[in-house]
Amino acid sequence: MRILHTSDWHLGRTLHGVDLIEHQAAYVDHLVELTRTEGVDAVLVAGDVYDRAIPPVDAVSLLSDAISRLAEHAAVVMTPGNHDSAVRLGFGAGIMRPGVHVRASVPDVGAPVLLDPARGGGPVLVYPLPYLDPDAVRRELADRTGPDEEVTPLARSHEAVTAAAMRRVGADLARRRDAGTSAPAVVMAHAFVVGGQASESERDIRVGGVDSVPAGVFGGWGLDYVALGHLHGPQVVTVPADHPPVARYSGSPLAYSFSEMHQKKSTVLVDLAARTPGAAPPHVELVPAPVPRRLAEVTGTLEDLLGAAGEPHVEDWSRVVVTDPARPAELFARVRARFPHALQIQHRPPATAERETIALIGAGHDPLEVARDFVDHVTGAPPSPDEDAALRSALELAVASERSA
What we know:
The protein contains nine helices and 19 strands. The chain is α/β, with parallel strands linked by helices. A hairpin with an 8-residue loop joins strand 13 and strand 14. The protein is elongated and about 85 Å long.
């Protein structure tokens, strides 16, 4: 069976104020075409489908369109992440068209979606895990020894709740293996797994000071593939086990922060075969995602950036860092005229000292001298006569205002 692993669409997200819905729609087009042309049997979306719990209308419309079009070619299995509202994403899951499975309910943890390929081959067991917030699920996932027994909540950690979910998965899979099934098994999980490299744009999921799940939680259950979501960079996670599954993050389809500008966004094609002695591990292929516009950081003096040095980045979404010792006149206007898609513009003069110094400012300090020192610290040069006059005038106005209050 061939599956397509994707995650972290964040429909409805903006990038420094730029609406990305058009580019997210282009990714959906790419995904539908990939599903059609590559003979994909199932599309797995491992969480953070929306960017927030109450998504904008155009994001809801885009998701509806995506599910409808993907379901024409393959089964679709979708789970909520920490950005989604599980209730809203899972609404109507029971009446979805055949082949569309939205797993957002904790009681369903451990119950697989049984996928039968349309193009021959054997079935696959997919165990979808919604994002498991420790505070919300540590009682629900706790082991019960009897109907009247008091439940002791699990430890308040991502490791504890994910391990409990995997025990349910392992128990179900063991029963099926004992019954003779050789179907490959896949787990979908939305978590920060130890060994993964984070970006700036993932929302902090720290609980009790800990935000991660040990990779070993996914080992020892007889899994073949772990489809992870949450981290935005596509990457492999090593699971310590005798016969480890292939575990990886698909990453987000678009860059959502400048920390992701060097990441190669992609979607994961995975070929799974029946579990037989000596069988090869799943075959994985990364398919590049379309890039609507590159992200770049451009650094230099304003003269250099307005010249040849800035030419390769004129059409990029850019962070422009101007390094002139003194702040150039009309900095923002001149930079935006050169870089129409600049998302951040910073003036960062060369450091004037080898290390930062901290000055204690007390009531006895001359406010004008404090202001002059601040200008010197920020720009790397003392205020000019005109700037000094402006500082003095502003200070006098402030003092006069205090007296009349």
